[in-house]
């Protein structure tokens, strides 16, 4: 059983769910989690929350149903310079940001351009996690990315929605295996992330956990049950 899930989406992400943050927290409590992160899609995603929505989160309560809440954003990477779709003053009021490449906002390019986008976005002090870099649509120099993540203290994720049968990013297993190999080599901690849109998959790491075990990835580099260490990573700026 894992105690935290910090890549989840509420109704404010604009697709796939009608669940509020309160409903998400209640579901997380029922599933035995102690820490839940809400990371709604940035405003460049069609139908997602506006800048004003993310600005208002800084005043939201951080505990509901006995669950500690982190309120962040899954920001969209917009170009190879690593620009993202929320301004620095808004991000500074959130707990952390996950930076991800989505084809609607950043068309897949060559390996050099795709990799450069990730290298540059990791320089942003609020970006603490890279989201689903296993996506087969983006050719990447994984070693360059994870070596830079070790220097920047940015976490990698193993995304349940990438490995599960309902996933839509292609056969991500070779990429996930390479990510774990390099995270072990460079001692970059990993998060298991549900990427749950709504309550259905909160805290569900069935495929990610099995995959990590099959790759003989050491549990001490998986931060889901190391809450103080995880929070320390997220709060560094």
Tell me what the structure shows.
By secondary structure, the chain is an alpha/beta fold. It is 33% helix and 19% strand. The chain has helices spanning 21-30, 51-56, 88-91, 111-121, 142-152, 160-163, 173-186, 206-214, 227-235; strands at 4-9, 35-41, 63-64, 67-76, 97-100, 127-131, 155-159, 190-193, 196-197. Strands 1, 2, 3, 4, 5, 6, 7, 8 and 9 form a nine-stranded mixed beta sheet that branches. The protein is globular, with a radius of gyration of 16 Å. The two termini are 30 Å apart. The model has no long low-confidence stretch (mean pLDDT 96).
In short:
The protein is an alpha/beta fold and 237 residues long. It contains 9 helices and 9 strands.
């Amino acid at each position: 059983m894992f105690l935290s899930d910090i890549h989840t989406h509420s109704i404010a992400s604009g697709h796939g769910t009608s669940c509020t943050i309160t409903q998400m927290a209640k579901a997380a409590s029922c599933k035995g989690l102690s820490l839940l992160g809400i990371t709604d899609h940035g405003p460049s995603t069609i139908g997602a929350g506006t800048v004003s929505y993310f600005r208002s989160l800084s005043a939201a309560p951080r505990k509901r149903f006995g669950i500690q809440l982190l309120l962040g954003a899954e920001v969209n990477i917009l170009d190879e310079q690593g620009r993202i779709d929320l301004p620095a003053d808004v991000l500074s009021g959130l707990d952390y940001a996950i930076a991800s490449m989505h084809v609607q906002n950043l068309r897949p390019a060559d390996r050099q351009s795709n990799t450069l986008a990730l290298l540059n976005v990791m320089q942003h002090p609020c970006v603490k996690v890279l989201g689903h870099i296993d996506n087969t649509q983006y050719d990447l120099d994984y070693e360059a990315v994870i070596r830079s993540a070790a220097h920047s203290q940015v976490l990698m994720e193993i995304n349940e929605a990438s490995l599960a049968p309902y996933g839509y990013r292609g056969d991500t297993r070779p990429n996930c295996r390479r990510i774990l190999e390099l995270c072990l080599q460079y001692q970059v901690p990993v998060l298991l992330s549900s990427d749950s849109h709504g309550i259905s998959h909160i805290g569900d790491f069935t495929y990610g956990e099995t995959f990590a075990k099959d790759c003989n990835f050491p549990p001490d580099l998986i931060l889901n049950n190391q809450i103080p260490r995880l929070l320390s990573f997220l709060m560094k700026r």
